Amino acid sequence: MHRVSSFIVAVGLLLVPSVVGAQAEGARKEQSFQLKKRQAAVGDVDTVDLQVALRLAFELTGPEIEPEPLNVSSTTVSHCTTTVLAARKGIIDRLKVAFGDMFDETEEGGKKERQASPISGKTYLAGMTKGRLVVTDEAGKPVSKEEQAAVKENLPELGKADPLEAALPDKPIRVGDSLDRFAKVFTEEFLQTGDPSTRFRGTRIRLSEITQDAKGPVGIFSVSTTMTLKQADSPVVMTIPLEGKLSMLSEGARLLEFSLAGPAQVALLEEFRNQGVTVEGEGEMKLHLTCSVPQ
Question: From CA 246, how far away is CA 258, in angstroms rounded?
């Protein structure tokens, strides 16, 4: 499984009570699931579609202050196809990356704004040169610093082994088994961004079901984590308990789908509570990522 960019958010895992459900669960626990890792090779193609949505509707009130509403929604959409151009012993050194529609759409106070990414609809080459990542256009010509930064945010780490794949278990696992090592690396490499104001904790990943499709066995993993957001100049701390699922194809240990969702909970810092300030409202975040697997 190749690393993709850091993202946030969740979707609920279905629990099916009843005697029949319990019997089926007992049968599934007898199944084992093996992630058959495969080294990256020239010609490998990955297509990733991502949508992240945030909605907040809160209001601050307090003595001698006018109510201050926060009503904002945002959606981030991205589409990216990577093709391996050079690899050695499974380590990717060079890629072609083609971006589809890439944009951020926000609405605040009834005003909508859509901002396209500088790399939307463009194709680039990226590779390691003397230990340094170099990004050019498809013809090999230099690109702007803004484009370079945006491309790098959407690339796997070139010139190094994939830490996510290395953290996957080498032995067969059964329904109910937890992937503690993978959950730790998943948090560090996939969820956690470079923004110090955002933190993830308590990530758990557990095999909940084994299904079968045309490409072979698929493991369905339940995922839970808690995201905390505290900006330096903000009087509030936002906490989002996230739950969701992750599906992986046994053959090649390929990520197929990842979805998360959760309610946004906001709390005031103690110094503001002591002044009689209160906050009320609700919000949510959602993420849905799909990866296509070549036939």
Answer: 4
